[in-house]
Amino acid sequence: MSIKINMKHRCIRSLLLVAITSSLAACNSEQTPTSVEQNENQQPEKNSAQPLHENLAIWPKLDIAVKPDPSVEAKVSEILSTMTLEQKVAQMIQPEIRDISVEDMRKYGFGSYLNGGGAFPENNKHASPADWIKLAEAMYQASIDDSLDGSTIPTMWGTDAVHGHNNVIGATLFPHNIGLGAANNPDLIEKIAAITAKEVMVTGIDWVFAPTVAVVRDDRWGRTYEGYSEDPEIVRNYSAAIVKGLQGAADQDFLGDERVISTVKHFLGDGGTEAGDDQGDNIASEQTLFDIHAQGYVGGLSAGSQSVMASFNSWHGKKNHGNKYLLTDVLKNRMGFDGFVVGDWNGHGQIKGCTNESCPQSINAGLDIFMVPTNAWKPLYENTIAQVKSGEIKPSRIDDAVSRILRVKVRAGLFEKPSPAKRKLSGKTALIGADEHRAIAQQAVRESLVLLKNNENLLPLSPHQHILVTGDGADNIGKQSGGWTITWQGTGNNNADFPGGTSIYDGIKAKVAMGEGSIELSSDGSFMQKPDVAIVVFGEEPYAEGNGDLDNLEYQRGNKQDLALLKRLQAQGIKVVSVFISGRPMWVNAELNASDAFVAAWLPGSEGKSVADVLFTKANGDINHDFKGKLSFSWPNSADQTTVNRFDKNYQPLLPYGYGLTYLGNDQFENGDQGFVLANDLNETSVAASDSLTELKIFELAVKKPWHVALQSGDKSATVTSNIQSLGAISLRTLDKVVQEDARTVSFNGNESASLRIFSSFPEDFRAYHEAKSVLSFEVRLERVPTDAVNLAMNCNGECQDSIDIAPLLKAADLNEWHTISIDFACLKSSGAEFAQIMSPFTLSTKGKVTLSYSGISVVPNTAEQATMSCQ
């Protein structure tokens, strides 16, 4: 590959002026920013794609199973009448266990607290149930200790138990929601929820942040696997079932000794954001918002769920954490929800005009509890008190929020129940991963599997054969369990972290042993004896929200290792059964063609052995378990068909909603030799995606969402929060280039290695831009000649830290003159960039002295051949 340096591109200021001028009026009318990157966490409210007409008549008045009780209301009023403002606001603050101590609980009396994904007692991933109980007991006792705060109101502990008690080692882990949706069995869901409640209660926890009732419309979304279906009917029915399983029936054992408080989340429309962008914007009409995205609330709230979690996303540009119409007018007043609304992880800080430490707008909109991890909880508590005293928040709004919190606590019996360590199920560790619990999880695995292809009736397999089991998912419980598994993203786990759990290989090995067949396991497809059949287990690596977002659905785009394995086996005349692990439908045409049979296994959880229950016959040749799963998500017919959903006007998926083959052939789909050969022209999809790409702006006037700016000097780092900021050997300040503060000047003094980094909290998928022959373009003005290399890098989520020295490009231009530098993505690729997961699209670093200014950073497609530095 050759690299050419083209210095004829000196300046395109005139082109940039066109874009800048169009926004001058808006810019000049705004207040002067108080910090360099003040807007980086605030998505500005924008014009709706269509006129937004609020119409409460669209929303139903729900018949909620848990009715108002005069005795409960009397107790709530009695408690509220004795409370100070400080005690009331403390009920509305929910910190995280990594950020508060037992003494903090004693001093402030928080109404609740949580453990986020990857948080454990004493920060110990392998904390025992006894460790969880110890912390629950200590926090509870501190909350009812009135020696400092004067309050004896018990606190609540909330946790994300999204597919079982997934934070606790040894717990039963059920298939993620996408697999449960394929099972379409509400009775099974209720049993799963009841088991989850029991295992949670063993550890002294009161409250579960489930169910997720997102109706996913774009499968690029990294939380697709948290959705049961693209069909709101399944979501509505499942929501009611899981709420009943978690909380108990309203007229029977409601919030009894074996039940927990449930949370229907995330309100509202998180599954319908544009381009599947996590925390993005939903621009559906209000009628569609109800018909599609609100059905889980119809089911869950009608069943009596006591809490609702607000969503990170916006609706027509307005963040839901600050949307009074949705939170108060619709949810509380119209639909009749009388529990409390809890925020999501610092979601209030994303409201326009808010920070994590101050957000009266959210309270006034109807948020009842701030979920406020990090040390922002203390200033948020103090600011909220001050805002009530100043009249910015009405005391009546505080009283309403606290009444809702107290109402749930009274209904849950928290004022009468023993402390966490003394409750009925507390410490009964035999329930964690109990055999009867795992049996239900195994049933869920069997019923969730969907058979997509079975040429020549290859399945079910005889256990008398010689079987090769291969693929990196074959003996990998962490991979088969996915995100939200012990750790937040589900990464960093190995099989030893799942005592009592089984891999898919474990089940195959047991089945073959019973049939007196033979088996080999390899990760790369190698074998000692040629197998009769190869079972290849492969698929997506674990991820959770943010990290899982894609820009198209092509599997292993740009790195077809698994396809190569399948083809290598078939080339040797070996029949191939593919078991595909994924959190969403994906474009796998080539992999389907290279398989004789293909099973969508989703994310089965800790009971991988049950996959083999369906793949193999009994020793006598009888069917053991038939396939029951049916697609609850349509399967795409191209990598860029990301929004194909049941009932679409132009509905042309590869495999439709409800598809799923069976052994007995008792459905509408033909089984047997289907001639299953699919178009798999990768270039066609890439070209189509390239043509649709537009310029991606990273910095224009200010850094664009979701990017932030950080400085690093030596081993010290700091996020930029001011218009003039220094750290060790580096300093940054604002500069007026064309309009006010539209550029930045960065200076390195050479005392130590330093860098400026534009970064995101989550990786972004830039592969489409690489395929579209894009460039990284920026305007730059050199003010002090560099004394050492000036390294430009595009850093990924992992080990890809190589860079390009742009000092020669800087020196080639006139000093103190603006010009444009554009770097071909192919050059960045050669320097080590991995475009699938870009954490920082722009990092400048040096060990020497240099001063320069920059502006207008963007990624521009289809311009690589004209780049300042081209590698075409």
Task: Produce a short descriptive summary.
The protein is 28% helix and 18% strand.
What percentage of amino acids are in beta strands? Answer: 15-25%
Largest sheet: 8 strands, antiparallel
**Mean pLDDT rating:** 90
Task: Output the number of helix runs.
Answer: 26
Query: Which structural class best describes the helix and strand composition?
Result: alpha/beta
Using the CA coordinates, give the radius of gyration.
28 Å
Outline type: globular
Number of strands: 33
Low-pLDDT stretches are 1-51, 670-674, 683-688
Helix content: 25-40%
Please give the alpha-carbon distance between the first and last residues. Answer: 7 Å
Describe this structure in words.
This protein is α/β, with parallel strands linked by helices. The chain has 26 helices and 33 strands. The strands form 8 sheets. Strands 19, 20, 23, 24, 25, 27, 30 and 32 form an 8-stranded antiparallel beta sheet that branches. A 6-stranded mixed beta sheet has the order 13-18-17-16-14-15, with helices on both faces. A 6-stranded antiparallel beta sheet has the order 22-21-26-31-28-29, with no helix packed on it. It starts with a strand and ends with a strand. Mean pLDDT is 90; it is low at 1-51, 670-674 and 683-688.
